[in-house]
Amino acid sequence: MSTWVQGKVVERIDWNDRLFSLKVEAEVEPFIAGQFGKLALEQQGERVQRAYSYVNAPHDPLLEFLAVKVEEGELSPKLQDLHAGDEVMVSPRPSGFLTLDEVPAGRELWMFATGTAVGPFLSILHSEDCWDRYERFILVYAVRELSDLAYLEQIRALEQAHPEAFHFVPVVSREAVDGMLQGRIPQLISEGSLEEAVGVPIKPARTQTMICGNPEMIRETVAVLEGMGLRKNLRRTPGQITVEKYW
Ligand SMILES: Cc1cc2nc3c(=O)[nH]c(=O)nc-3n(C[C@H](O)[C@H](O)[C@H](O)COP(=O)(O)OP(=O)(O)OC[C@H]3O[C@@H](n4cnc5c(N)ncnc54)[C@H](O)[C@@H]3O)c2cc1C
Ligand SMILES: NC(=O)c1ccc[n+]([C@@H]2O[C@H](COP(=O)([O-])OP(=O)(O)OC[C@H]3O[C@@H](n4cnc5c(N)ncnc54)[C@H](OP(=O)(O)O)[C@@H]3O)[C@@H](O)[C@H]2O)c1
After folding, report:
1. What share of the chain is helix, strand, coil (3-state, %, to 5)?
2. Where does a domain end: 39, 56, 90?
3. pLDDT, tens digit, for every residue of 180-227?
4. What is the Å distance from ligand 2's center to 218 Cα?
5. Are both 39 and 108 inside the same structural domain?
6. I want to staple 110 with a disulfide (CB 3.0 to 4.6 A). Which of 15, 20, 121, 209 is the partner?
7. Of ligand 1's atoms, which has the minimum distance to the CA of residue 51?
8. Do 134 and 171 fall within a single domain?
């Protein structure tokens, strides 16, 4: 297959004035839930390309991406300007290792996301064969403001469909919201609030974690988890912490 295929935007969903999703029709190779592809646009004769995780499950006919407009960014503001019918270049080849087949067995799988990094976890949670892998899937989705929580309806539907196996913990850092934790993921782990909210301890013998998004959040969260005895998951030395940095 060629390096790029022409995709067509089918829909843009605006979650707020900077957070949006694009549904795109494009012929790409099969991917594994949790992987990412690339989107690109021509700008002044040059192709500007960036990585974006698939939000859709592998079996869905349309590709879906969740993105935030980075104010001074080269590509994301242009992606936000796309409308249904517009063309966007899509890399046909998926990449990335934030996938369940890279994560060892355990009792609970904790998925920690900041901002748009909830996307790969939604792809995993909507994939057909995920639910028999762990007793519980715990999605911790941290954003600045309530309006930054995308896909809430889909996530609530997962809670209803899997009341025992799925636990959702929304975290909002910059406002107090009833029924949601306030703060940042590493602090909420180290002070015990997350374990208390879920009712499950974080321990190397039972816990697996996947962490995605803001690199500083990942660095600090890994440090806290290592302090609790968890180790990075590498192919040669399996552990409990699997990460993907967005920048
Ligand atoms: C493996 C991988 C998967 C990714 N998946 C997604 C995705 O699903 N959705 C998405 O929006 N972005 C994702 N990104 C980031 C994306 O590739 C771009 O970096 C982002 O859209 C900004 O591009 P830009 O050209 O507008 O800004 P640039 O000029 O490239 O500026 C980059 C700066 O923007 C900030 N930034 C970049 N991405 C984000 C983000 N998601 N949230 C907050 N701040 C950010 C950082 O400060 C970074 O240094 C992913 C990156 C990687 C490496
Ligand atoms: N979301 C907004 O209100 C807003 C407004 C204007 C512009 N923007 C721009 O939009 C882009 C994306 O912003 P975003 O809000 O999606 O992503 P983000 O800045 O990564 O924030 C997402 C979540 O991660 C938390 N976080 C940040 N650093 C952390 C760390 N070291 N440890 C743990 N948690 C950490 C944030 O908490 P804190 O809130 O404590 O940082 C927030 O809850 C940025 O370029 C930003 O400049 C966003």
Report:
1. 25, 35, 45
2. 90
3. 999 999 999 999 999 999 999 999 999 999 999 999 999 999 999 999
4. 13
5. no
6. 209
7. 17
8. yes
